[in-house]
Amino acid sequence: MSKNNEADNNSVSTEEALREGEVVEEEVVEGARVRRKGIYLLPNLLTTASLFSGFFAMVSAANGMFENAAIAIFVSMVLDGLDGRVARMTNTQSKFGEEYDSLADMVAFGVAPGLVAFFWSLNSFGQFGWAITFIYVAGAALRLARFNTQIGSVDKKYFVGLPSPSAAAVVAGLVWCFQGVEPELWLKLMTVLVVGGAGVLMVSNILYRSFKDLDLKGRVPFAAILVVVLVFVVVTLDPGTVLFVGFLVYGLSGPFRALFRKVRRPRAQPSEAAGVNKD
Predict the structure, then answer these.
(1) What span, in angstroms and rounded, lies between the C-alpha atoms of 116 and 109?
(2) 204 by DSSP, 3-state: which?
(3) Cβ atoms within 10 Å of 171's Cβ, excluding its own
(4) pLDDT digit of tens for each residue in the chain (279 aa)?
């Protein structure tokens, strides 16, 4: 009887919360499922800041302030990296936070970079320009949807397809690096290649290192901190160029590794077959 009463109380509280427009989620507390009302403020505040940065990038691009737009996308990347870590550190993960983060990522790393590139260069190609832009935006949407369905079923050491933040960084880095250059034909064609290529790579099956297996809590040699300082100095000298080149190399690393594995595999097969014949 007590369990039935408890279930009735939970259902009543849930119905009341839904009438009030509240978010209701089930959490496991000491092995028992408990319904909780409301959301966690801190991680969702960081997600909102990331969403705002993506929105600011679109507004800046529409007003011709392309450097500000590119920087805003990188700010979104930093905030997106923080919200998940803060949620895990403070034990404030929630289903609402996951869904909200995914929607914010779609704006900040899907729609915003595509529109920034379109307003900057691709609009000069007319319908072809917005078609390339849509390839990128659709690629980001499909990438995020596939990522959400593969959580827990894929090796954490790798991402399947180019991560949307990295794709956004390549596009934003291109705009930041060349925003002061006269938009000649070679630069427009380069933009088409980068934006369209990033969209295709996001939905590809190419594996990318996630670097989640790096142990940042363990001790490292003293020289490691000097390398970190050097990296900060190099980025500060010309942030647009350094970030663009860095993320472009990461974006190309997946196809090159996949190509290297394909070239290496046929060479190994004849030697293996020869060894079998000898035996």
Answers:
(1) 11
(2) coil
(3) 26
(4) 444 444 444 544 556 655 556 776 666 555 566 666 777 788 899 999 999 999 999 999 999 999 999 999 999 999 998 988 888 888 888 888 889 999 999 999 999 999 999 999 999 999 999 999 999 999 999 999 988 887 666 667 888 899 999 999 999 999 999 988 887 899 999 999 999 999 999 999 999 988 776 766 777 787 888 888 988 898 888 999 999 999 999 999 999 998 888 887 765 555 454 454 443
Helices in the chain by DSSP H: which ranges?
2-19, 41-62, 66-89, 95-106, 112-120, 127-149, 164-178, 185-202, 223-237, 239-278
Q: How far apart are CA 75 and CA 69, in angstroms?
A: 10
**What does residue 240 show for φ and ψ, rounded to 5 degrees?**
-60, -50
CA nearest neighbour of 140 among 88, 213, 73: 73
SS3 call for 207: strand
Which element (helix H / strand E) includes 220?
Answer: none
Q: How many CB atoms lie within 10 A of CB 108?
A: 31
Give every CB contact of residue 66 below 8 A, 6+ residues apart in sequence: 60, 116, 119, 120, 175, 176, 179
pTM over 0.85: no
Structure tokens given for 238: 């010309």
Q: State the amino acid at position 103 in one-letter form.
A: L
